Automatic annotation (TrEMBL):
Keywords: Cell membrane, Membrane, Transmembrane, Transmembrane helix. This is Trimeric intracellular cation channel family protein. It is a multi-pass membrane protein. It comes from Streptomyces zaomyceticus. Residues 13-87, 99-173 form the Glycine transporter domain. Pfam families: Gly_transporter. Belongs to the UPF0126 family. The chain crosses the membrane at residues 12-30, 37-54, 66-86, 184-203. It is found in: Cell membrane. InterPro entries: Gly_transporter. Its main location: membrane.
């Protein structure tokens, strides 16, 4: 089904762009945490490939694509090298990185859902794995960097919700036999735009009503990673 939506060359190119941008975000966090060059490379690889690797292991697509395509492995290293030598310049383009990250989020939640369904999972399970594909690398990145994952923090702009919407749209299109290049593209764009709006207007998920917590809001940061 996935190859019916995009040609293999287009799919591969889109994957590499998404992997590169996710790797940039991982490498930048490593620099902020004062990691050495090895730590920067590890965080870049984990952020870029973690979600897809988890998905492939769950659905039985082994060996995972991250280990069968050298480009998937090398692209995060290229991003890590770029950040290692030019991180002040990369930091200044953080807005652009966030925009591309949002695009990668939209793309991966759609392709992850579609691939999971191709391997025989039900619609709900496929959508869950689509979400995991999109956000799994960021969760592993934050855990390795000894931080609470951004998508679990109430003081961060919505990140998982746009991916949930995109994955749910794909599942519904599959259910009603409407999945094609146009509808899958619409799901990508919807997740992408929702994430951009969340960053622009600082949309956040609601917390429990009548909560009585002593936790205080962390200092505001630019955007969720």
């Amino acid at each position: 089904m996935l190859h019916d939506l995009f040609t293999p060359s287009v799919q591969h190119a889109l994957d590499l762009v998404g992997i590169f941008v996710f790797a940039i975000s991982g490498a930048l966090l490593a620099v902020r945490k004062n990691f050495d060059v090895f730590g920067i490379a590890v965080l870049a690889e984990v952020t870029a490939l973690g979600g897809g690797l988890f998905r492939d292991l769950v659905i039985g697509a082994v060996p995972p694509a991250a280990f069968t395509d050298l480009g998937y492995f090398l692209m995060p290293l290229i991003a890590a090298g770029l950040v290692f030598f030019l991180h002040p310049e990369v930091e200044r383009t953080q807005t652009a990185v966030n925009v591309f990250d949002a695009a990668g989020l939209g793309l991966f939640c759609v392709t992850g859902t579609t691939k999971a369904y191709d391997y025989g999972l039900g619609l709900t399970s496929s959508a869950v794995l689509g979400l995991a594909t999109a956000v799994g690398g960021g969760v592993l990145r934050d855990v390795l960097a000894n931080e609470v994952p951004s998508l679990l923090r109430w003081d961060r702009d919505l990140y998982a919700v746009p991916a949930i919407v995109g994955a749910a749209m794909v599942a519904l299109c599959i259910r009603f036999d409407m999945l094609n290049a146009w509808t899958s593209g619409a799901a990508v764009v919807t997740a992408f735009v929702l994430r951009l709006f969340a960053m622009r207007y600082h949309w956040r998920a609601p917390r429990a009503w009548n909560r009585r917590s002593s936790a205080r809001e962390a200092p505001e940061k630019a955007t969720a990673q």
